[in-house]
Amino acid sequence: MTTTWYWAFNHLTAQTFDHETLSSSILQYCRARQWRELRIRPLRRDVECFIRVMCPIRQVGGEDALEPVLAELGLIRP
Q: Cα dihedral angle (47, 40, 3, 71), rounded to 10 degrees?
């Protein structure tokens, strides 16, 4: 019923956050609603994917240096 994307753009009010803070806030939300199918590892991978797609990459060189498409929006900064 919730995803990292939905949570980040509809519920997250913090000006700054990190992987752990975002994961924890989503977990608290799910637990408060007593959702039974709650798996921590997939949630953490989803948060990592969200941040990778939204943030510019700092590395230089090679294919890994390609900017994620959504990073151009500048919604999230490292």
A: 0
Whether pLDDT at 66 is above 70: no
pTM: predicted TM-score of the whole model, two decimal places = 0.70
DSSP state of 34: T
- Residue 62 CB neighbours (<10 A): 7
Question: Which ranges constitute the DSSP H helices of 1-78?
Answer: 4-10, 19-32, 40-54
**Burial of 50 (C-beta count, 10 Å sphere; 0-12/13-18/19+):** buried
When the pLDDT of each residue in the chain is averaged and rounded to a whole number, the result is 79
